[in-house]
Write a structure and sequence with these properties.
globular; mainly alpha; single chain; about 180 residues; Rossmann fold
C-alpha cells in the first residue's frame, strides 16, 4: 500500500515487476529481486543509482545496507494478528505448508520488530518514520502528509490518499478494547 501511495504521489519506484499481482496482493508487489540478495552477494552498487527513488526492502535486510549512504525509511507497522492471518491465507492459496505455529511466529515477529527499531535508531545512516497500517487506512490524507513531510518532498497528497483501497484490508484484527 505504501509503495502505491508513494508512486501515486510522484516518487520514482525501483522495481523489476517480476512478481506479478495475485489474489494475495492484487495491486502488485513492487519488489526488486536484487534486494533479496543483500544478505548474500553483498552487491550494493545498484543503490547509488537508486538515490532519490523508492525501494521496497523488508526490515530484516536493512542491516545489510551500506552505512556510507543515507536512507529515509518508512517503517510500516501492522497488527501481528493481521500479518499472521494474511501470511497463512497466502500460504494456503499457494498450497505451501506452514512449518511454524502462529504463537512461535508471533514471538519471532515481535523480536524482529524490536531489533529493526533498534537498528533504525542506532545507525546514523537511517532516518525513519513509523506508519501504522490501520492509521493509513483510517486517514490516508494525514498519512500522506506525514510521509511527504518526512521525505521532504512536494508529493501529490490527494493522489497518495486516493491510492489507498480499504477493500483490500481483508485481514483485520479485532479493535483494541
Amino acid at each position: 500500500m505504501m509503495m502505491q501511495m508513494l508512486e501515486s504521489g510522484g516518487m520514482p519506484i525501483v522495481s523489476d515487476y517480476l512478481r506479478q499481482a495475485d489474489e494475495s496482493n492484487p495491486q502488485g508487489y513492487y519488489e526488486l529481486e536484487r534486494v533479496k540478495e543483500l544478505d548474500k552477494s553483498g552487491d550494493t552498487s545498484w543503490l547509488r543509482a537508486a538515490r532519490g527513488s523508492v525501494v521496497k526492502i523488508i526490515a530484516y535486510l536493512l542491516r545489510y545496507l551500506p552505512q556510507d549512504l543515507n536512507y529515509r525509511v518508512v517503517f510500516m507497522q501492522r497488527d501481528l494478528a493481521e500479518v499472521l492471518a494474511s501470511q497463512s491465507k497466502m500460504l494456503v492459496s499457494r498450497g505451501e505448508p506452514s512449518d511454524t505455529d502462529n504463537e512461535r511466529m508471533r514471538r519471532l515477529f515481535v523480536g524482529h520488530v524490536a531489533q529493526s527499531r533498534r537498528l533504525l535508531s542506532d545507525r546514523p545512516c537511517f532516518e525513519s518514520i513509523e506508519i501504522q497500517y490501520r492509521d493509513a487506512l483510517a486517514d490516508p490524507e494525514e498519512t500522506a502528509r506525514r510521509v511527504a513531510g518526512f521525505l521532504d518532498k512536494d508529493l501529490d497528497i490527494h493522489a497518495m490518499a486516493a491510492a489507498v483501497n480499504p477493500d483490500l484490508y481483508r485481514n483485520r484484527a479485532a479493535p483494541a478494547s
